Amino acid sequence: MQERSTVPSYAARSFVANSEKPFLFCFSHLRWDFVWQRPQHLLSRAAHHYHVLFIEEPLFRPGIEPRMEMTRHPEGVTVAVPVLPEGLSSEDVILEQRELVEDLVISQGDGSRVFWYYTPMAMAFTAHLDCELCVYDNMDELSLFRGASRELLDFESELFGRADVVFTGGMSLYEAKRQRHHNVHSFPSSIDFDHFSKARVIDADPDDQASIAHPRLGFFGVIDERMDIDLVREVASLRPAWQLVMIGPVVKIDPAGLPRLANIHWLGSKSYKQLPQYLAGWDVGFMPFALNEATRFISPTKTPEFLAAGVPVVSTPITDVVRPYGDKRFVEIAKSPADVIEKAELLMQRPREPWLQRVDRHLAAGSWDKTWAAMHMLMFESLDTGLSTTATTRTYFPTPAE
Predict the structure, then answer these.
(1) Cβ contacts of residue 48 below 8 Å, gap of 6+?
(2) What pairing do the DSSP bridges indicate for beta strands 216-220 and 284-287?
(3) In this structure, are residues 47 and 76 in contact, taking their beta carbons and an 8 Å threshold?
(4) Which residues contact 249 (CB under 8 A, 6 or more apart)?
(5) Is 77 exposed, middle or buried (0-12, 13-18, 19+ CB in 10 A)?
(6) Do 269 and 298 touch, CB atoms closer than 8 A?
(7) Which phi and psi angles does 305 have, rounded to 5°?
(8) Helix (H) or strand (E) holding 287
(9) CA–CA distance from 229 to each of 261, 267, 294 (Å)?
(10) Which of 106, 165, 187 is nearest to 383 (CA)?
(11) Is the backbone of residue 369 left (phi > 0), alpha (psi -120 to 50) or beta?
């Protein structure tokens, strides 16, 4: 990405009219309290500049009237969840969401609005609403995930037509989408270095990990169709003295299908705050991603998180891991169970300090703070072409320096 000027244009500067924060409405397929990842990192930073409302997919309960449940979170983000009665048709679900979201947006007043989309499906109930700036943070290729709606691609085309600026979650996704919009920018996974580097100095295990022997190969993240379950099983079978520590929620796959060998430890979900305590006790990080449609464009946030924790990593050949982490030998790439074992043995024998020095130089170039600042500048620059001049008398858009 070319370096950009930090001085806003005259047209953008003239948009600033008063001191009120604008509203940023985020439409997400992920829940705020599920796993702390890209949306949480970015929008908690956006909350310094905007009133952020994070609108989740609906929950369904028997015998209730439709309502919007609102929860204010410590990060400065308000989470809004449509709660709908069970048994509605798909058409009625859309109509109810449309009404609830419209009421929510209107209730916030006439200040400027940014719409920030993670799911194109939200276009079904938001396309009629006005906003001054529309952002599509295309973090994943959702159309390739298990259970994806057949309508998703149509809604994404509609969203590309509306968006003023498009961000992608990695370089491979950028390469796939850059011809679909005039203003697309790649923002691969960043790192909260201070948080994960705590693992380098922690010397006490959490209670549910303390009794697990070494060596330990560890994974953290969502356990779903993107994980190569057979690879996990085969590595554990080939090295019964190695312990595989698996952390994260199991979704969209049957937990009964997970391998239950004595040396595989499924520890369940852990909070973002707890993760460094677990990583501190791992000898090797293990990223056993399947090579399938769901992983074709992923850019795993856990790659730099492992590295910041000082944990050497073996990963299957995911494109956005190979480039740049594998190419620069920050991460070892393995294509088979035997390859995983060979690379893990290499990492357990290799001195860490020279590798870690190179890793730290690389990680110093990226952080979620820098990513948000760069995104915010691109949003601000989009005001020149994406905003109506009739709105300039009543709306406010913060400069990136604010």
Answers:
(1) 76
(2) parallel
(3) yes
(4) 34, 35, 222, 223, 268, 269
(5) buried
(6) no
(7) -70, -45
(8) strand 284-287
(9) 12, 16, 14
(10) 165
(11) alpha
Return the residue matching tokens 């600033």. Answer: 16
Residues 387 and 15: beta-carbon distance below 8 Å: yes
Contacts of 229 (CB under 8 A, 6+ apart): 253, 257, 258, 259
- Beta strands (DSSP E) in 67-214 are 67-72, 77-85, 113-117, 133-138, 165-168, 184-186
Which pair of tokens denotes residue 387?
A: 């905003």
How confident is the model over 22-68, as pLDDT tens digits? Answer: 999 999 999 999 889 999 999 999 999 999 999 999 999 999 999 99
CA distance readout (Å), 49 to 101, 102, 382: 22, 23, 17
In this structure, what token pair is assigned to residue 18? 């008063």
**Mean pLDDT throughout 68-95?**
96
DSSP character string of 218-239:
EEES-BSTTB-HHHHHHHHHH-
Q: Are strands 113-117 and 284-287 parallel, antiparallel or unpaired?
A: unpaired
CA distance 169 to 118: 11
pLDDT digits (tens, 9 = 90+) for 145-186: 556 577 888 999 999 999 999 999 989 889 989 998 999 999
Single-letter amino acid, residue 255: P
CA distance 136 to 118: 6
Displacement of CA 169 from its chain's centroid (Å) = 8
CB 9 within 8 A of CB 89: no
Specify the residue for token string 């997919």: 57
Judge whether 155 and 121 are in contact, CB under 8 Å.
Answer: yes
What's the chain's length in residues? Answer: 402
Residue 180 to residues 111, 114, 119, 121, 199, Cα–Cα distance (Å): 30, 21, 17, 18, 41
Q: What span, in angstroms and rounded, lies between the C-alpha atoms of 318 and 62?
A: 43
CA distance 3 to 158: 30
First to last CA, the chain: 23
Measured in degrees and rounded to the nearest 5, phi and psi for residue 399 equal -70, 155
